[in-house]
Amino acid sequence: GNFDYPWSGVDSVVCLNPECTEVEVFAFNPSELMLQTTNEFGCTAIDLLQIDVRKTRPLYAPTAFSPNGDANNDFWTLFGPEVVENINYIKIFDRWGNLVWEGKNLTPNDVSQGWDGTMNGRAFNPAVFAFVAEVLYIDGEAFVVSGDINLIK
Question: How far is CA 147 from CA 29, 35, 88, 128, in A?
Answer without folding.
Answer: 29, 46, 16, 10
